[in-house]
Design brief:
Two copies of one chain form a homodimer.
Chain A lengths: L2 H4 L3 E5 L3 H9 L3 E5 L15 H13 L8 E12 L2 E3 L5 H11 L3 E12 L2 E13 L4 H10 L14 H6 E6 L1 H5 L3 H13 L1
Parallel strand pairs in A: 1-2, 1-3
Antiparallel strand pairs in A: 3-4, 3-5, 5-6, 6-7
Helix pairs in contact in A: 4-5
């Protein structure tokens, strides 16, 4: 199997995240971004892993434009869970502080769910990474909140920012998944999708 | 403790690696790079963890220029070990292929050793990360060797490149350490160094 075939496709990325676009390009893909409006609601009885998959599929179904022959639609949702409870984007600096205090000296899970579609064929998958923060001092949390942008991030932190570099002791799993794209699962699923 | 004090220092980085410089800047430091010539030899009886620490210290001792009051010298060495054996930089594409085949479907260790100095005070430390490659097909290895630059990299791969995104299933430990800088251990040690 030659990868040149796969790389002849353009990924139609249904996300405004510049980081996801950058990661896809780093993987070797051409990328076109689009954006649909969907509500981020989901059934209450879903398991942790099923929630981001459900939301990714919802975004995928909301995208009604026709895809060209050499295009693959990608919708992705990344969520942070602490003790099975969702940590969304903090609404203000005080909530960001509370979230980071809850992550301090603790393990949490980052789960990305993905939906990909080519023509009539589609696939759903997810990837989970465990992230361990060391004990974060109040000054570390305050410094991060003051100097960086926790408010637009689920769980109030970006692993690629300062606090990820000085506060994340260990991860178990894929790093890129924590950044917002499960690159290894995505690559395997894209290969399968074009071979179907 | 305010971080503004720490960030008033300039890191004098004894390394030509543009990636290390970029990571230090991402951590919030001002950086000045210098370069000394040292041989990469070490005593045969050192443990795996002690080798990069020894080499980092050697680089540190080879740097004889005086440091300014607000400067901290940093020397770092990152090594790849498979079953306790060092994997250096491959000398040609054939050796790169052999190395990647040996990493395929296997766990290996990436260890960074660091030496930091401020005035007469110095510290040595290391950080280890376990990296797990999934089974890599011949076409994956050939594609990577053909399109990317494995020859200037210990172990013949860069985790921030394509093969890291599609081939590394899991890491245990610090991601930035695999990129070449143990950011979390470095940050803690820098804080201790300026408090000494």
């Amino acid at each position: 199997m030659s990868f040149n075939d796969l790389f002849s496709y353009t990924i139609v990325l249904n996300s405004r995240s510049p980081r996801r676009k950058q990661l896809l390009e780093q993987m070797g893909f051409m990328v076109r971004t689009v954006k649909t409006q969907t509500s981020e609601t989901y059934p209450a009885d879903l398991t942790m892993e099923a929630i981001p998959v459900f939301l990714a599929k919802k975004k995928g179904q909301a995208y009604k434009e026709e895809l060209l022959e050499k295009e693959i639609l990608l919708c992705s949702d990344t969520m942070v869970f602490l003790h099975n409870k969702v940590l969304g984007k903090p609404k203000d600096k005080q909530e960001a502080k509370t979230m980071l205090q809850s992550l301090s000296n603790n393990k949490h899970s980052v789960i990305s769910g993905c939906y990909i579609r080519k023509g009539e064929k589609e696939r759903l998958f997810y990837e989970k990474t465990e992230v361990y923060f060391k004990p974060l001092s109040t000054s570390t949390i305050d410094y991060y909140i003051d100097k960086y942008t926790p408010l637009d991030k689920a769980g109030a932190y970006g692993i690629q920012e300062w606090i990820g570099m000085v506060g994340v002791e260990k991860i178990e799993g894929s790093f890129y998944n924590v950044m917002g794209l499960p690159t290894i699962a995505l690559f395997d699923n894209l290969l399968e999708l074009i071979s179907l």
